Amino acid sequence: MDEAALIRAAQAGDQDAFERLVRSYDQPVLRLAMNLLRSSEDAYDIYQEAFLRVYRNLDSFRFDCSFHTWLYRIVTNLCLDHLRKKKVRRTEPAVVETEDGPMDRMDSVPEHRADGDPQRRLLSAELRGKIEEVLKAMTARERMVFEMRHYQGMRLRAIGDVLGTTEEAAKNCLFRATQKMRSALGEFLP
Amino acid sequence: MTCEEARESLMLLSYGELTFDQEETLELHLAECPSCAAERLRMERLEEMLALGEAEPPPGLLARCRRDLAVKIEDENRPMRRFSPRRLWRDWFVYTPLWLRPVGAMLMLAIGFVGAQFVPAGSLAGLGGGAAAEPVMSRVRFVSPDESGRVRVVMEETRQREFTGYMNDHRIRQALLAAASDPADPGLRVESMELLKNQGQQDDVKQALLNALRADVNSGVRLKALEGLKPYSREPEVRTVLAQVLLNDDNPGVRTQAIDLLIQSNEPEVAGILQQLLEREDNSYVRTRSQRALAEMKASVGTF
Ligand SMILES: [Zn+2]
Questions:
Q1: Which residue has the higher pLDDT, A134 or B93?
Q2: Nearest-angstrom CA–CA distance, A144 and B226
Q3: pLDDT at A100
Q4: Hey, CA dihedral for A127, A131, A133, A134, is it positive or negative?
């Protein structure tokens, strides 16, 4: 069954077809959420909310863009909301008071790829910390574009489509993000 | 092409977004301009580093996402049977507050809401003092039928309780110490370590820092513990653990930090440890760092 047939079957209420549709996209979606939010619980929430929305709104999908674009619009909107909320939110329910006032809960630290790969093991915690620091300092949109390009391998054109903007605007956003990364990681470069 | 245009093209090149002609023009410039050619190498290196910085969903997360989504979609389809016994048994978790329902034989369950993050209970009995809430997580641990046809069910329940206090508050510190060794949650361990690391003057905290540094499987937690031990690198007990870590830890970042702390102590034994390290160290960055440290200690490599 090709993708269009799968979508039509799912729209007609075929649960297996819907599940197959989810499974052909859910790994990159989870990775995107994981990289954007750097927390497995947040990535879990995005996954659930995004695919529930897909399920509830699949009827309104009219094939006027690719399913990938349609799905990623949902996912990126949820992630952008989440990133913005995260920036303004200063306290969490289980906040711990310290002498300097309430402490922010740190983002929980995702486990990085398994130890089997020696190259990854050699990546110093310092560098990894730096990358996350720069990502956090980016605007939500810069970060979104940057992650879609670097960790999803999406073309600028597709990124523009998903974010409802032009290729040129996506490019400028990506430039800014890459410049920030480039100058922050300067000390690690040859 | 100017250097400024070349720099812009270099980024597009790394994104794979240049046309054939644009790439040709760039190559011509790079052939003649050593500084832009060097920038190309840096951009390539940057790409590699970023690829390594990708966060990986932890094992099991995808499976959990898929399973829970299937449950939610089933709920959407049958809103009237939201809390069907079949689902209860399939998931072991229950989603509704205080719910009683016979399941075949007589079976009574008190349940709550899923999703609590909890610290190991053992050392925490009597802590807090905030009002104990309804159970937030219930799990069937044990089921057994008896002769009369009834079923005995043993539930394990977790409650959520909130309390606030300053870092010098004994209850807060005890809770953080327990959380810092929660094997199920590396994120929680890192957060707790971050809060505890400036409390090393307390003996129990210093011990926790040493234990984490020696034994935590997560390098993020070990790095936090190292930070906390910085002011105590002169103490013999701390030095001993640092030496063990330096020679045994599989994370080069941790080894590097351990070197920095050890050389602060200025003890002659450190030169010997560094030389021992050099015999086995295969990470070039850590090697360089320890060679430099040795040079600074004016001990020539290999002849101490
Ligand atoms: Zn040039």
A1: A134
A2: 33
A3: 41
A4: positive
Name every residue whose Cβ is closer than 8 Å to that of residue B26 and which is 6 or more positions away in sequence. B1, B6, B9, B10, B13, B18
Q: Choose the closest CB to B55 out of A51, A112, A114.
A: A112
Its CATH class, for the domain covering B170-296, is mainly alpha
CATH number of A1-92: 1.10.1740.10
Shortest distance between the Cα of B215 and any Cα of chain A, in A, equals 17
Q: In this complex, do B164 and A47 lie within 8 Å of one another by their Cβ atoms? A: no
Q: B26 CA to middle of ligand 1, Å?
A: 9
- What is the ipTM score, two decimals? 0.80
Put simply, the answer to whether A48 touches B55 (Cβ < 8 Å) is no
- Best of B8, B10, B56 to disrupt the A interface (most A CBs within 10 Å) is B56
* Assigned CATH class of A117-190: mainly alpha
Claim: this prediction has a pTM higher than 0.80 = no
Summarize pLDDT for B23-43 with one digit per residue, the tens. Answer: 999 999 999 999 999 999 999
Is B182 in the A-facing interface, judged by CB distances under 8 Å?
no
Q: How confident is the model at residue B136 (pLDDT cuts 50, 70, 90)?
A: low
CA distance A45 to chain B (A): 9
Q: What is the DSSP string of A44-63?
A: HHHHHHHHHHHHHHGGG--S
